[in-house]
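fyi for ur records
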Amino acid sequence: MNFLNINRKTISFFLSVLLSIFCIGGTLGCLPAYAALESWNETPQKQAIIDFVDKVIADGVPVKDRIAVFDNDGTLWSERPHYFQEDFITTRLDKLPETRVSRLIKKTQKRIDKTGGHPISEEGKTFLSEIPVVSGITTGEYKSLARSFLDTIHSSVTSNDDGDYQRFDTAYINLTYKPVIELVNYLKDNGFKVYICSGGGIYFVRSFSDEAYDIPSEEVIGSAIKTAYVESNTTDGPGGSLVRQSELAHYDDQEGKPVGIELFIGKRPLIAVGNSSGDFEMFKYTDAGVGNSLIVLVNHDDCEREYKYNDVPGSTHIDDDGLEVPDNESLDYAQNHENWIVASMKDDFNTIFDPIPARTPPICN
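which gave:
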């Protein structure tokens, strides 16, 4: 009996030790997720993100209401010298006869003219220019073409490049921002559902979002053209296919971003991350007041490791209509709103690309 009691005590002791080990392991495994933001320097901007997420959790905001939206071009990956989708279009045009290219350019201009008085962004022009170029194929064929293009070396497409933006000697798919992807994962670890809200084409972004960012295609919002179900075309498999048409269905930039968010998500986000004037309406829509929302603006101010543009608050340029407009309306607005955080690539990111791609260093202005 004593032997059995000793054994029981011994067993209980070892069980307690084992449970303690598991608890310690569990604790270590559940250290605050900000430890994963290793590509961020210890700056007030990083701390503000952590504090906001901690507050969301402490306030008991339901997981179903923890929504974050991220722009794509210039936020999750690079966008210079051209939007990557624009380079994709260029490579498609290079395969067409010159006479057809001329007709396609005219069709694109007509679409831009139809937008009326609302100024359309460069990203919007890029998307509209694609419509006549890659219509008549299935969505599956398109996504396959787009994804294949992203294995192209960035420096191999140099049509009409701005000399201020030296290209990288690596594939497009590698030019993603490690700190921003870490932010995506940090938010997901804390119960947020993360969507991409891009002015680029929805099928273009869906071709790589899962692979590049671990964001599934159903959580991608973007500009879209109309598609039609064609039962006889089984290119994408049995059961028919969706074939791309030549009509615009949704323009997901500027004022279109809040419309897309409502259309796809049906509720206002708590966090919005972007980098440009094209994100301004998305930022304002998300901004429900200090303490209730967080806006994170990625500022391109590192010409040595990435690019430098739109990095100075209050800077302006002359647009196509001869009007003086802000270089970055979002950056200007962020200066006077404490829940709008400007994340400097130069100061807040200790790493931008991983691995670091090769290129000839540009001259910093």
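The two ends are 85 Å apart (CA to CA). thats all i got for now
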